[in-house]
């Protein structure tokens, strides 16, 4: 399992027992007759020749305790539809779970559509095939005695010339929206994963924003840096690092605004929260971490020749997280206890 250390966890499920256990207790889905559809998906995956069988993807998304049950259901569906509208037809199941002091939505997301009635398609060759005309054995394309016997995507026929037909209960090709590019280099793999999680977090923010708008709430957020055509690879990498950090900070600020909205003294706590947001904004604008010692960081991703931009932006994130935690502990403890109680004003 991999995690960005924030609000979304990602895991590939390779054991059908996990799926069975998940749906055994109360779970919700975007489709009817989900148990029989999952059985079809598992059966299809088992009969494949793949050595590594990934049955589905598990996501765990942290949400606010202040949401009502109806809002949680709406948030779960909107989040998946933001990832892709394909998830209106691709099965997924979810449930709500409390772990320690956090509330989460656990998803099992599949990657194939299930058909109500089996469909028939002509069977096609998956690759070009060649044989040696003297030995009759398969050979490579550059063999001087090579004869091509079939082309990739060519329709298969039997010895009588009839088209060979395959029947499918599910789509034979996976529809993959929840994946990131793997790499042998661990640092590159980690970067790809973090970018993938950051994208999911943006989908979550958009889904949550729709819920908030329905309540008449608006969020204050820090702006992202826009990518433009012609930027160098180095600058684009710095923009990606910057936006990933801003995204994680925005998530924390949004959750604090959520708690303020449900508090018993909105004006008081909103004023305190605005003060925190202003202090973070001042660091972003000026790079001032320590005003007394005039310690400054270069935070803009658009400037050139930064020797340690990643170190600077990570130090900025660490400083902001420390300020948020300190503020939470000193000024926000009462609200957090109120939110955890699950009560409404």
Core attributes:
8 helices, BirA Bifunctional Protein, domain 2, disordered C terminus, 3 domains, 43% helix, two-stranded antiparallel ribbon, 6-stranded antiparallel sheet, alpha+beta, 12 strands, 345 residues
List the helices and strands and how they pair.
Elements: E1 2-3, E2 8-13, H1 16-24, E3 28-29, H2 34-47, E4 56-63, H3 69-83, E5 92-99, E6 102-109, E7 114-122, E8 129-132, E9 146-150, E10 165-170, H4 186-214, H5 233-261, H6 266-286, E11 288-290, E12 295-296, H7 309-331, H8 333-340
Antiparallel strand pairs: 1-2, 2-4, 3-5, 4-6, 5-6, 7-10, 8-9, 11-12
Helix pairs in contact: 3-4, 4-5, 5-6, 5-7, 6-7
Organism: Thomasclavelia ramosa
Protein name: Reverse transcriptase N-terminal domain-containing protein
What overall geometry do the principal axes of the alpha carbons give?
A: globular
Please report which band the strand proportion falls in: under 5%, 5-15%, 15-25%, 25-35%, 35-45% or over 45%: 15-25%
Gyration radius, to the nearest Å?
A: 26 Å
Taking pLDDT < 50 over at least 5 consecutive residues as the criterion, the unreliable ranges are 1-6, 338-345
* Distance between the ends: 38 Å
What oligomeric arrangement do these chains adopt? single chain
Strand order of the largest sheet: 1-2-4-6-5-3
Number of domains: 3
Helix content, binned percent: 40-55%
Number of helices: 8
CATH architecture of the largest domain: 2-Layer Sandwich
- Chain-averaged pLDDT: 82
- Could you give the order of the helices and strands? EEHEHEHEEEEEEHHHEEHH
Number of strands: 12
CATH fold name of the largest domain: BirA Bifunctional Protein, domain 2
CATH top level of the largest domain is Alpha Beta
* Biggest sheet character: 6 strands, antiparallel
Structural class: alpha+beta
């Amino acid at each position: 399992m991999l995690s960005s250390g924030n609000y979304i966890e990602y895991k590939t499920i390779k054991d059908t027992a996990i799926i069975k256990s998940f749906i055994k207790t109360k779970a919700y889905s975007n489709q009817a007759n989900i148990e029989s559809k999952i059985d079809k998906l598992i059966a299809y995956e088992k009969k494949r020749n793949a050595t590594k069988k990934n049955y589905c993807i598990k996501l765990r998304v942290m949400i606010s305790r202040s949401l009502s049950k109806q809002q949680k259901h709406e948030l779960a569906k909107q989040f998946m539809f933001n990832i892709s509208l394909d998830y209106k037809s691709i099965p997924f199941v979810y449930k709500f779970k409390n772990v320690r002091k956090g509330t989460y939505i656990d998803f099992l997301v599949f990657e194939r559509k299930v058909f109500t009635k089996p469909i028939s398609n002509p069977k096609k060759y998956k690759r070009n095939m060649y044989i040696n005309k003297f030995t009759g054995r398969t050979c490579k394309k550059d063999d001087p005695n090579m004869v091509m016997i079939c082309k990739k995507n060519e329709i298969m026929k039997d010895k009588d010339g009839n088209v060979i037909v395959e029947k499918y209960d599910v789509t034979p090709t996976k529809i993959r929206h929840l994946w990131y590019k793997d790499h042998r280099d661990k640092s590159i793999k980690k970067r790809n994963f973090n970018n993938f999680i950051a994208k999911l977090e943006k989908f979550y923010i958009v889904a949550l924003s729709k819920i908030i708008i329905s309540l008449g709430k608006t969020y204050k957020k820090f702006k992202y840096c826009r990518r433009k055509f012609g930027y160098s690879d180095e600058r684009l990498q710095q923009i990606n690092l910057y936006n990933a950090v801003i995204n994680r900070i925005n998530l924390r600020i949004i959750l604090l605004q959520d708690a303020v909205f449900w508090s018993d003294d909105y004006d008081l706590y909103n004023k305190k929260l605005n003060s925190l947001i202003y202090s973070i904004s001042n660091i972003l604008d000026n790079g001032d971490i320590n005003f007394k010692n005039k310690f400054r960081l270069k935070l803009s991703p658009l400037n050139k020749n930064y020797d340690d931009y990643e170190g600077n932006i990570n130090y900025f994130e660490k400083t902001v997280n420390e300020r948020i935690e300190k503020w939470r502990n000193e000024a926000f403890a009462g609200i957090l206890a109120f939110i955890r109680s699950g009560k409404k004003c």
